[in-house]
## 1
Amino acid sequence: MNRARAMSYLLSRASPGMPLGASRAWLIGATRSKASAPPSAALAAEPFLNGSSSNYVEEMYTAWLSDPKSVHQSWDTFFRNAVSGARPGEAYTAPPSLAEPQANHVPLTSLAPALASPQMVSDAPISDKVIDDHLAVQGIIRAYQARGHLVAALDPLGIDREALSERHPTTLPSKTVVRNYFDYIGESDMERSFKLPLSTFVGGSETTLPLKEIIKRLEDAYCRSIGVEFMFINSLEQCNWIRQKFETPGIMYMSAQEKRLLLARLTRSHGFEAFLARKFSSEKRFGLEGCEILIPAMKQVIDRSTSLGVESFVMGMPHRGRLNVLSNVCRKPLEHIFCQFAGLDTGDEGSGDVKYHLGTYVERLNRVTNKNIRLAIVANPSHLEAVNPVVQGKTRAEQFYHGDSEGNKVLSVLLHGDAAFSGQGIVYETFHLSELPQYTTHGTIHVVVNNQIGFTTDPRMSRSSPYCTDVARVVNAPIFHVNADDPEAVMHVCNVAADWRHTFHKDVVIDLVCYRRNGHNEIDEPMFTQPLMYNRIRKLKPCIDLYSDKLVSEGVVTKEEAKEVRDKYEKILEEAFAAAKMETRVFNKHWIDSPWSGFFEGKDPLRASPTGIHEDTITHICRRFSSAPPNASDFVIHRGLQRILNARMEMVKERTIDWAMGEAVAFGSLLKEGIHVRLSGQDVERGTFSHRHHILHHQKVDKSQYNALAHLYPDQAPYTVCNSSLSEYAVLGFELGFSMTNPNALVIWEAQFGDFHNTAQCIIDQFIASGQSKWIRQTGLVLLLPHGMEGMGPEHSSARLERFLQMTSDDPDILPAFSSDFAIRQLSDINWIVASCSTPANLFHILRRQIALPFRKPLILMTPKSLLRHPEAKSPFDDMVEGTEFQRVIPEAGPASKNPAGVKRLIFCSGKVYYDLTAARKEAGLEESIAISRMEQIAPFPYDLVKQECDKYPEAELVWSQEEHKNMGAWSYIQPRIATALNCEKHLIPSASESQESQSWYEYWFPWLFPTSSPSEVSPSEAPATTQSETPVASDTRVVRYAGRPVSASPATGNKKTHLRELKNLLEDALAL
Ligand SMILES: Cc1ncc(C[n+]2csc(CCOP(=O)(O)OP(=O)(O)O)c2C)c(N)n1
C-alpha cells in the first residue's frame, strides 16, 4: 500500500460523530462496517483533489498533524472537520480563491469517506499522542505481519533464532519486529483498547482489543512455530488471504480425530526409519530422522488437495526420506523397498539405479477423501534439484492431455533440501517457468526439508541469503517456515499451502525447519564437523515422543493406544521383511515412473511405420504454410514476411521444399495423424535464423497472431510452438518431462545455438543419455542443435557433436549382426540417435520416424544455419512421398557412382561440409574420381551402408572429412567403427539381444512375441535368442584417413579470415589427389 492510500485508509477509521479532541476518539469506537463504508455521492463536493495529488494531501496532512498552523487555513479547517466526523463532501470549506477548481480534482473524502461533518467543525486541538499511538498500533500490526517470522520459534534446535515461545504477552515485543514503534507506545499502553484496522484479522469478530491482546495474538500468529513470509507479495487480495489464514483466532484448531491420525502417520514415519536402521544398520538410506513430520505433511497436502479436486500428483524429491515417502506416501510395497537392500540380481533390462533415486507410479484410493488418486515420483539422478523442471514438464503434459487448463486436477509437488534449494541455479530457472503461459503448472507446492545442514556445511557457509527459501520470492510465492517439531503447526501450514495453490494457482513454499539426527548418511560421523549442533541433537527427544506425550497429556490418546499404533506398524514391517527375504531378484520395471499403458500393446517391436506420405498431404500443408491467414484482408502482415510466404508458394509450385518447409510438412503430417507436436526453446516461433515463422504477428494489433500449422485440418492434433525463457537447463528438463507423459507426441527442444545446450548438460547426461538404462524410461524427445562452422566465432559454431557421440552406447568394436531388421534393431538397442541431415526431405523423414518407431528414443539432431537458405539444400516432393524413407546414408549418386572402379577416393562426411566438398570437387573437375557419401545418421552407426559404399569403391582411398577440429566432431566416433565395418570377421558378434543376460525392454513390453519368457519372472538363462546372424565375413584392410581442421582447444576461430583459410585447407586436404 503506498503512503497516500495508507493515509486514506488510516483516516477512514475515523468515526462520524465522535467528539473532537476526545483522546483516541477516532481510533476506537467506530464499527468496522461504518469505517469501511463506501464513498458517498457527495464526493464531488470536494473537487480540489485528485488521485495524483494524494501525495500532496498526505504531506499536508502530516504537516498539519505536527503543527496545524503550518498549513493553509483552508487545510486546517478541512482536516479539523474531517477528523471530527464531517460527512463526505461536507468537510471542505472553500477558501477565498482566485482560480476555479480543476476539473480533475477528486475530493479527499473519496480517499477518507467517513471523515467529515460540517457540524463538527471545531478548533479544539488534536492530541499528537493520539495520532502517534494510532500510527504506532498500525505500525506494530504491520511489523508483525512483515517481520514476525524473524523471531518465530522455528528451530527445534533453538540455535539460530531468538525463540519467543515463552514470551509473555505483556513483555515488549522484539525490536527486530517492531523496530521503534514502541518508542511511541509503551508498556503503560498495554491495557488501552485500540480499534483494529482492516489489515488484520486478529480480532476475529471483535473490532477493538487491548493492545496487550493485539500483541499476544500477533505473536501467536507470527512468532510461534510458524513464520510467515508474505508481505513482499504485490497483491493486496493475496496478502489479506494469508493474514486471514494465520491471524484468525482458533484457525489452527484440530479435532481429536485429526490429532490421532497425525499421530498414526508420524508413528509410521518414525517406525519406518527405525526399522531400516535396525535391519540394515550399515546401509545408506538417507533417512528422515529429525524430519519425520515430512510424511504426515505430504499426506496432509495430498488429502487437502484431493478434497479440492486434485486427482494426480507428480512429485520430485531428493534422497532424504525418499524410501519413507515411497512407502508411506505412495504405498510402494514394502517388500520392493526391502529387496533393494538385499543385493539381489536384476531380473529384467537396465543398469538400474540406487534405491534412493528410483521413481514410482501408483494409483490408489485416498482413504481420507475416498477418492482415487494417481501418484508419481519422478526418478532422478544424484544431481540435486535437476528433476524439478522434469517434474514440471510432466505435470504440464498431464494437465494438457487431460484438458486441465487451470491445473485443478494435476498438481506438482517438489521437495528440496535446504542447501540445494538455495545453492542450485536450476531452482531459480524452474521458478521462472511457473507463470509462463506454455510452461505453467498452475502452482507448485514446494516442501523444503530444512535440516540446517548440507552434507557437512552449515548455512553460514552455504548461502548468502537469510533463508534458504529466498529464491521463491522472485515469483511472489508465500513462504511458510514452520518448526518441524510442532506437528500441528505443520499440518496447518500444509492446509494453507494446498488452499493457496487451489485459490491462486501459484507456487507456495513450506519450509520445514528441522534437524538431521544422523550424519549425511547413516555411515557418516557428524561430530567431526558439527560437534555443538550434534550435542544438542542428541539431547532432543524424537518428534514422535514429543507429540505422543502431548496428546497423552491432552487426553486425546492413552499411552497404550499410542503403543498399539506403533506395534501394529512394526508387525506390518516385519511381515514385509519376511516376504522380501523370499525374493531372489529385483525388477527395474517395478520402479517405472511414467508407464505408457497401451502404447506397446499389439506392436511389432522391430517394425516401424512408413514415413513417406501422400503428395496431396504435402501440397496441402505446404500451401497452408505459405499462405496468409484466412482473414488476410484484416490481418496486416509484415512485408518481408509476405515475401517469404510468396517464395514458399513458388516452391510449392515447383514441388520443392526448403528446410523450414521440410520441418513444417513433418509437423503438419503428424498433426494430421493426431500426433501432438510441441516445439519449445528460445525464439523458436520465428526461429533464431528467421527461417521458420510459425507465428505471424498482426502488424497493427497487439497479440493478434496466426499459427498456420494449428489450422491445417479441422480434426488435427494441437500444435504448440512456444518461445521459452532464456534457460536451457530448465526448459530442456521441462520438455523431457513433457515427453515422458505421452508417447504419441513429438516434443522438440531447440537450442538457440547448439553449444548453449551445455548449460543443460545435466539433463543430457543424467536423464537423456542414460534414462532408459537407469530407469527403463523411454522418451522420443528431439533436440535441435544448430551446428556448423560459419565463421561466427567459437561460441556459435559447434553443438559439440563429439560429446553426444561419446555418450552413445554402441560398442565401436562390435559389429551387430546384419539382418533385414538391422537398422531398427540398432535403434532399439542404442541409448539415443545422433544425426545431421543434409536435406529437408531427410529432416522430414527423421522427425516422422520418431513417431513411426514402435519404441521411443531421444534424437539429437545437428541442424544447419547457412543450409536453411542454401539453394541446393532443397528437396523435391518426390523424396517425401509414399515409398520414400529416411536415408541413414546418402550415397554418391553422381558420375563417380556410375564408374565405381575408377573412383580413387571415397569421402564420407556429414552435414553442411558436404556442400562445400561437392562445390570444390566440381570446381576441381574431380566428379569422376571422387565419390562423396553423406552420413546422415551417425549413431547408431550405419555399418551396413558404410560397408556397402566401401565395397562399391574397392580401389578408393577412404577419407573422413569434417569441418570441426580433429579432436571434435564425429571423427573419433566414426574412425573405429569404419574399421570394424571393414574388418567384419574380427568383430563379428551375435545380435545384442543374444548376448544380453537379462530380459530386454522389448521382451518385457512385448511378451507375446517371446513366448518362452514371461514378462515378470523370466530367468535370464531362458531369454530367447533373436534372429540369426547374417553378418558377412569379409576383410578390408583399408584404413580411413582424416581430412579436416587440426586439433584445437577452441571450437572455432573468431577471425573470419582464419576461418576461410581453414576451410580452404580442409577442402584441399580432402580433395587433393
Ligand atoms: C548438484 C549436486 N552437487 C553435489 C551433490 C552432493 N551432495 C549430495 S547431498 C548433498 C548435501 C545436500 O544438502 P541439502 O540440500 O541440505 O539436503 P540434505 O542432505 O541435508 O537433506 C550434497 C552436497 C549432489 N548430489 N548434487
## 2
Amino acid sequence: MREAVFSSTGFRIRAARPTAAADPVAGWAERVAASLFFTFFPADCRICEAPLIQISRLPVCENCLHEPRRLGGSLCAVCGEACDFPADLEAAAGLCRLCRKAHPPFERAVAYGSYDGALRDLIHMLKFDQVHPVAPVLGRMLADAITTLEASLPPGVISVVPVPLFSKKKAQRGFNQAEVIARAALKHMSRPERFELVVRGFARLRDTGSQIGLSRHQRRKNLRGAFAVTGSTAIMERNILLVDDVYTTGATASECARVLGRAGAGRVWVATVGRTLRMFDTAAIDAAIGEDLPEEQGQDENREGRGSEERVAIRARTA
Ligand SMILES: [Zn+2]
Ligand SMILES: [Zn+2]
C-alpha cells in the first residue's frame, strides 16, 4: 500500500512515485492498490471538491493545503489580535484596546493563521470527521506558531499543556484534538528537549456547553470552576505553554491560565493553530468589549459551519 508522505519543507503531500514502469507485476499491484484506495477514499478534495490527482491519506488538494497563510501585519503583542491601525498599536506599546483595558492572565498568545476558509475546514475535518491524517498538517502550523514564541520563553523545560476536554466529550470523540495537534507539533521543534507534553494533571471538570449568545461576562461565569489542576509535578512551578486548536475570544485561554497560575504554575503562554480575527475597524473594536462571539465550545456545537453549508449547497445543485 502506498503511503502519503509529508515533506519536511512544507505542507505538500506526495504519494510515493510508482516505479512500476520497469516491472509489469509491480505495475499491476500499483493499479490494484490505487483502485482499492479510491474505493475507500473519496476522489474529491473534501474542502473544494476538486478531483484529487494524487493518492494521499489526506483527502485535500494541494491548493486547499496551501491556502492557510501565516498571520502577518499588525498584531497585538499580547493576544495576537490583528489591528488595522498600526499607529494606534504603536501608540499603545503594541497592545490592542482589549489588552490595554486589562492584561490577560497569560503572557502572550500566538496563532498560526486566521480561523476561516480552508484552515477552519482542516480543523473541522480532524475534530468532527476524525480525519487523523490532517493532524500533522495542523501540527506543523502549531509548531510554526510556537517557534515565533520561542525567543521570549524563559530557559528551562516548558510544560506543553493541551486545553483539556470534558472526559465524556473526549470519550465521545475518541481523542482531544488539542493533544493530537500538540503531539504532532512537538515533532517539528528544533529543540524538542525544551518541551514536555503534559496531558495529565489538568482537567475540564464539566461540560461547559455552547457559549453562543453569551456576553463576555456570562462566558467567564460559565467557565468558572470548569478547569482544575488535579495534581502534576509537571505543572507546579513550571512555565506553561497552553495549546489549543482555536483561540476565539480568549475566554478559555484566560480561564485556564488563571487556574494554572493559582495552582502554582509559573507563567503561561498560549499557542493555537487558528485565531478568530475581529478587530478590523473601530466599530468592531468598540463592540468587542462586550461582544457576543461564539466561544470554542459554541463552535463545537455549531459544526455545520459556513464551509459545510456551502458544500451541501454545491452538492444539492450538482446532484
Ligand atoms: Zn481543495
Ligand atoms: Zn490584545
